[in-house]
Fold this sequence. Notes:
The chain has 464 residues and is of the alpha/beta class. The protein has helices spanning 12-23, 38-42, 45-62, 78-93, 99-105, 150-153, 178-189, 209-222, 310-325, 353-360, 376-381, 407-419, 439-454, 457-462, and strands spanning 2-8, 28-32, 108-111, 114-118, 121-124, 127-136, 140-142, 170-174, 193-198, 225-228, 232-238, 241-246, 251-254, 256-259, 263-265, 279-280, 283-284, 297-299, 338-340, 345-350, 365-371, 387-393, 396-404.
Amino acid sequence: MRYDLVIVGMGSGGLVAAEFASSLGLRVAAVERDRVGGDCLWTGCVPSKALLASAKVAHHLRTADRYGMSPVEPNIDLGAVWRRIHAVQAQIAGTDDDPARFEAMGVELVRGEARLVGANAVQVDGRTLEARRILLCTGSHPATPDVPGLEEAGYLTSENVFELERPPSSVVVLGGGPIGVELAQGLNRLGVRVTLLQKGDRLVPRDEPELGEILSRVLSDEGVDLHFGVEATGVTTTDGVKVVESKNGGRFEADGILVAIGRSPAIDGLGLEEIGVEVERRGIVVDDRMRTNVSSIYAVGDVAGRHHFTHTAAHEGAMAVRDMFFPGKSKASELVPWTTFTDPELAHVGMTVAEAQERKGVENVGVERVDLAHSDRARAEGTIEGRIVLVTVREKIVGAHILAPAAGEMIHELALAIDKGLKLRDLASLIHVYPTMTTSVNLLAADAAYRYARRFRWLAKLAR
């Protein structure tokens, strides 16, 4: 049987691509070696957000005095928390990500290890699937540092920490990116003693530095033991306790080690080199249409090395199907918002201040800031640790950075503004609901509008 499309990997990108392609009446086969749903459902977004939800409840109980109630130290059953995480996963796996749902759409699910054996052929455990187009959505896996003794001591990653019945009572986290800080805060709030080692000089280095500094203070105040400029050089185990040794002579002990230093593309065993598909360290090389150098083969999501987010994989999956089977060309958007789901959340879209100054010139860049301490909603909810930073070039918004509760919800208005080339003052014409966190965005927009109006105040005098 010849298919219109063979999809390899039924994670975020593959799920969306399969549903879109099947809705077009195409003959689709999808190959999956493990569980439908991919990293997002089983090792990433879903379990980590379920963990953080439980952790937030525990934090609220401890800090109830902020709200006029007596604080209590919660009685935390980590096993029960982990069972809840698994229940949330099972609920999604049995509904939106249910294999039967895709089979009902007409997608043929093929279980097994996929290997490309030609520009239009995928082999799965001896069976060859021929197709007009092939879409690779195999994702990524946690990267592992080359630290002597780490493998022997054993370690956790985002892939296996949620497979446990309960986490260790103490952990050393290697890495201060989004995964590291989310898990560090969540585990700490649930009573796990957390030490976080960051090789660089700040957390979440891809985000606006000043917001990363505020987030560092929040985590430190909550009890996460943060260490910067620490490079792990070895791991030993003594009486069941794991010890991470650092280049500067430091020793950090815990019952477990959680590695969160980034991710690597899942390309092993796909046979890419044999058929001439170009690959680099970050992943499969693609153009702005998500095509590889073999025109019948596309790659999206983590394996393509562009952005490691569920939402971009889904966007790219749909766009790739559009490009494959419709006239004209589609391009994957480079304007990608993202959020680190700490509390408060850290959201980002567009350029940082430094990036804008480097690309556009310091003299052309404006920076608007407002602290959450000036937000009536933040004051009412006792969540004033945060800030909004907007970056403009000749008054147009080119970057937005938010550290606030629900920052991931707030960022989309600003992403749309950047996409449409709006000036900051343009947002003032939109009435924002009061009191919301987004009212702070309107305050910045109103300030910009007032500054613009003052250029023409001589007209106000003439109108008397």
